[in-house]
Specification:
Elements (H helix, E strand, L loop, with lengths): L4 E5 L3 H13 L4 E6 L25 H19 L4 H4 L2 E9 L12 E5 L2 H7 L5 E9 L2 H14 L3 E4 L14 E4 L5 H4 L5 E12 L6 E5 L5 E7 L4 E4 L3 E2 L8 H14 L7 E13 L4 E6 L5 E6 L5 H24 L3
Parallel strand pairs: 1-2, 1-7, 2-6, 3-9, 7-15
Antiparallel strand pairs: 3-5, 4-5, 8-11, 8-12, 8-13, 9-10, 10-11, 14-15
Helix pairs in contact: 1-5, 1-8, 2-8
């Protein structure tokens, strides 16, 4: 019997995790990853690797919670497994502060969620009017991408370094196409609902920082955050929709450092390791995860538009892609 062929387009955390999960759950499929950018040059590489739904739009928030739950459970597994050291996966506890009361739907997914009292706010960040404490997971995304690629190749996955102009170029060679191109979908399939949300972060050496701290003001974006990663503390950040600038902006750098030092004064003398900027793939209408019919009856499964929640949703979305493929294609291939 001929093996059905799958091509996953895109090699960030969404693309690689999707390819690996297809291999895991559909072992009779031949899987290829095709991309023109690989780690360490993907947007995912600069991510803080922090699990929390962030800058993800749309009305399908029930699915965001479902995908987020599946991903968080998987990350908790990695953080408590022997793989934790290799992946920089760790459970982290800390505070999220706000300028007004919040009731996030994801509060039931994290561990130990509680609203903080006025004493904690006054002691830690008096400018805030509301706060919460909880435990979540962080992962070193560069290490994670390397591990995913190793797993993919070990499972006989094919890797092609190339750029395509349209998905239809792949229909002759592949039975299933999975579109994980992120911001690239704007040009590749003419989806102008995909827009960049520019993110800039600074990484510093601050091994004394053990708790994360975030602050969200009235603009609706996380104005500043401090995330204690495995190799550095990540300071952020920006959420500039429609900004295509991939250079490090000095004003943003100043805002990040000053804002984070206000939250945690001990960072004032921390050594700066590097600055980074990336463009998050945001869709106002929400994550696009659905199938579409192409020429000759071939189907593409779209999986893009995760905004600032790529790490937060990746494994759950990969599982949804597998379900889409299994439902749409298994009956057809039984006749080959």
């Amino acid at each position: 019997m001929k093996k059905p062929r799958v091509c996953v387009v895109g090699a960030g955390v969404i693309g690689l995790s999707t390819a690996v999960r297809i291999q895991n759950e559909l072992p009779n499929y031949d899987v290829t990853v095709l991309a023109d950018r690989f780690s360490p040059d993907t947007t995912s590489d600069g991510s803080g690797g922090f699990w929390q739904p962030h800058l993800v739009g749309g009305d399908n928030q029930d699915m965001v919670i479902q995908w987020g739950r599946d991903t968080l459970n998987y990350l908790f597994y990695l953080a408590t497994s022997p793989l934790a050291n290799r992946l920089g996966a760790q459970m982290v506890s800390g505070y999220s502060f706000f300028s007004e009361p919040q009731c996030p739907e994801w509060r039931h997914l994290v561990l130990g969620y509680r609203e903080v009292d006025s004493r904690e706010i006054k002691l830690l960040f008096p400018r805030a009017r509301f706060g919460m404490f909880y435990t979540t997971v962080m992962i070193h995304v560069k290490a994670y991408l390397s591990w995913l690629m190793s797993r993919f190749k070990h499972n006989n996955g094919n890797v092609i370094d190339a750029r395509i102009d349209k998905l239809e170029d792949l229909v002759k060679e592949y039975d299933v196409i999975v579109n994980c191109t992120g911001l690239g979908a704007r040009k590749l399939i003419n989806d102008h609902d995909v827009t960049p949300i520019r993110g800039q972060v600074t990484r510093v050496k601050a091994p004394w920082v053990k708790l994360f701290m975030t602050y969200q003001g009235t603009h609706g974006h996380c104005e500043n955050y401090i995330l204690p990663g495995a190799d550095a503390v990540v300071l952020g950040g920006t959420g500039q929709e429609g900004n295509w600038n991939t250079g490090v902006d000095d004003e943003d750098r100043k805002m990040i450092l000053e804002g984070c030092v206000e939250m945690m004064p001990s960072l004032k003398e921390a050594e700066v390791v590097r600055h980074w900027t990336g463009l998050r793939p945001h869709r106002t209408s929400g994550v696009r995860l659905e199938t579409e019919r192409l020429a000759k009856g071939k189907l593409v499964v779209h999986n893009y538009g995760h905004g600032g929640a790529g790490v937060t949703l990746h494994w759950g979305c990969a599982g949804q892609v597998v379900r889409e493929i299994r439902t749409a294609f298994t009956p057809n291939f039984s006749r080959l």
